[in-house]
Design brief:
Shape of chain B: globular
Order of helices and strands of chain B: EEEHEEHEHHHHEHEHEEHH
Helix content of chain A: over 70%
Strand order of the largest sheet of chain B: 6-7-8-3-9-10
Structural class of chain A: mainly alpha
Largest interface: A-B, 26 and 32 residues
Number of strands of chain B: 10
Strand order of the largest sheet of chain A: 1-2
Largest sheet of chain B: 6 strands, mixed
CATH architecture of the largest domain in chain A: Orthogonal Bundle
Number of domains of chain A: 2
Structural class of chain B: alpha/beta
Order of helices and strands of chain A: HHHEEHHHHHHHHH
Oligomer: heterodimer
Largest sheet of chain A: 2 strands, antiparallel
Strand content of chain A: under 5%
Number of strands of chain A: 2
Number of helices of chain A: 12
């Protein structure tokens, strides 16, 4: 210790390997931790691949990914209904949650008095902590009956193709609405943090030009926060894509593809959770593992797309100095 | 008088920021506001375009007239007022997501001002002595400009909507001497068309650009008069101490 301190005191700086030892130890151990993350991800993918590969080989990759038949009794395994269900429910969730979350965040940061912000943001973050199975129960007992009557019949009157068929309550719409509620706190709380980083000077610049409060938000606040809000949306989307329990409870668990949001469907995580324990034979087990890989790939792909979107939107004038 | 202030008091919650300030600014003149930090200089100019009242807990009493009209009379919309009374801030604050062109046009779009925007952009940028430096890259980011250029862009943005009064809150304090000299030259030229109130902590600057000078101390207007008189022959000992650098 004393020696190290003495060397540090040397005017030359003493860049010997000895003084660098703590630094090196840090660098090595942090590299190990960092690598561990990649190793864990790799091991998970590898293990899934090990189980999935024989089944995918038997079924044929394109036949597996492209087929809409999933019939365990006839050994037909097609992933399309689950990919479709996952994407549709997540899309519904985003379409509902994004405007509400951003609107709420803007209201709480730009309009509401500070006291109201505290009062309202607490229950919002509380929402994030509710277990998903409880959301599922709420969905079954409250949301699904409400959708069955009056919401779905009322939507059906628009004669929009998305809103057609029997209003049974269980289905894509129910799952999407539940997901929307579940990702709302994520997007809202992160958006609030993002909006709070907007420099007051930008708001003042707009107001001094004769902007109303809303115009100042539109021309100064939102453009500055765009990248951060997209980031918040990615996190929300990640949760929606992977959510299992609540979706399983309200989506209807029917491996079909329907254009109508009223119809029952299925999602990738839901079918894995429902069937894996009772899977008979290596083909079904392998097909379920392959669905896991697909979920992984879909999540990754959407993340990459969203990140590219942020980069593109930041190119040119949008790059913001700190 | 273009601007007439009578018995203005301003507060932030329990802080009494301005105490019974009265003064007038004739049209097409430059008024410099000097004084040590925290003396109420900024608060004073922010009352003139009603930006002060946007701060939570801020309030004010007294009257301010622009062209003889009370700013706080019923039916005066602060949004309309700010179109006539422009403002330039201490730190350049161009909209970072917009190009140079869009920054200048922003106020025109906000206020629904039609006409030939390209022409108005050129005119405003020329007035702000920035045109020659940016004419070939109008559609690049405003952040690609230097600090001094950004500040002139902010001046051009404020000029574009055709204000009658320009408030400047230490517009050159974040800039280097060359950029500062350009802004000062600009202020002297803009006086032909506008009435300018400029806050500055730089007394040489006040002496160079202004017709009248007001010295504020602890929220009070200590002395107000022709700039030459304030700097060469102040009536108040506190003014003399400040302009000769004994405190502040």
């Amino acid at each position: 210790m004393g020696e190290v301190a003495a060397r540090h005191a040397e005017p030359s700086g003493g860049r010997s390997s000895r003084t660098n030892l703590p630094d090196r130890a840090w660098a090595v151990s942090l590299t190990v931790f960092g690598a561990a993350v990649l190793v864990v991800a790799g091991v998970i993918v590898g293990a899934l691949w090990f189980v999935a590969a024989p089944a995918v080989k038997t079924l044929g990759l394109w036949n597996f990914v492209g087929s809409r038949q999933w019939d365990v009794t006839r050994d037909l395994y097609g992933a399309l209904p689950f990919i479709y269900g996952t994407l549709v429910t997540s899309a519904v969730a985003l379409i509902i949650a994004l405007p509400v979350s951003v609107g709420l965040a803007v209201f709480l940061t730009e309009m509401a008095p500070a006291r109201l912000r505290v009062v309202v943001s607490f229950p919002i973050s509380l929402l994030a902590g509710i277990p998903s199975v409880v959301y599922g129960l709420w969905g079954l007992f409250v949301l699904v009956p409400l959708l069955r009557k009056p919401i779905e019949p009322w939507l059906a009157r628009t004669h929009f193709p998305l809103f057609s068929g029997a209003p049974i309550g269980l289905g894509y719409l129910a799952a999407g609405v539940i997901l929307a509620i579940m990702i709302l706190p994520t997007i809202t709380t992160i958006s609030i943090e993002v909006l709070r980083t907007v420099p007051g000077s930008l708001r003042e610049a707009a107001l001094a030009l004769g902007a109303t409060r809303w115009e100042a938000i539109r021309i100064a606040v939102l453009p500055y926060s765009r990248a951060g809000i997209v980031g918040a949306t990615i996190l929300g989307l990640g949760r929606a894509l992977g959510e299992t329990m609540a979706v399983t409870m309200v989506i209807g668990n029917s491996p079909t593809i329907s254009a109508s949001l009223f119809a029952p469907g299925y999602s990738l995580p839901a079918v894995i959770a429902n069937e894996f324990a009772e899977a008979s034979g290596s083909l079904q087990t392998g097909a379920l593992a392959a669905l896991g890989l697909i979920l992984f790939a879909v999540t990754l792909l959407l993340n990459v797309i969203a990140r590219l979107l942020v980069r593109v939107s930041q190119k040119g004038p949008a790059r913001v100095a700190a | 008088m273009k601007i007439e202030v009578r018995g203005l008091d301003a507060y932030f919650r329990s802080t009494h920021a301005l105490r019974s300030v009265s003064l007038g600014v004739p049209a097409n003149t430059v008024l410099a506001i000097i004084g040590p930090s925290g003396c109420g200089k900024s608060t004073f100019v922010r009352c003139i375009n009603r930006m002060h009242e946007l701060v939570p807990g801020a309030r004010q009493t007294g009257q301010i007239f622009v062209d003889g009209k009370d700013l706080h009379a019923r039916g005066v919309d602060p949004v309309d007022l700010r179109r006539r009374v422009g403002m330039v801030f201490q730190r350049p604050n161009p909209f970072p997501t917009m190009s140079i062109y869009d920054n200048v046009v922003a106020g025109l779009r906000l206020n629904g001002i039609g006409g030939d925007h390209a022409e108005l952009v050129e005119k405003s940028l020329r007035q702000a002595a920035l045109w020659d430096e940016v004419k070939d890259r109008l559609h690049t980011s405003a952040l690609s400009l230097s600090g001094g250029q950004q500040q002139r862009l902010c001046i051009a943005r404020a000029l574009a909507i055709g204000p009658e009064v320009m408030l400047m809150d230490e517009p050159a304090s974040a800039l280097d001497p060359i950029a500062t000299a350009k802004i000062e030259e600009l202020i002297r030229e803009l006086r032909q068309q506008l009435t300018i109130v400029i806050v500055t902590h730089n007394m040489q600057q006040a002496a160079r650009v202004s017709d009248h000078t007001a010295f504020f101390y602890m929220g009070e207007l200590i002395e107000h008069g022709e700039t030459e008189q304030i700097f060469t022959n102040p009536r108040e000992p506190r003014t003399e101490d400040y302009v000769t650098g004994k405190f502040g």
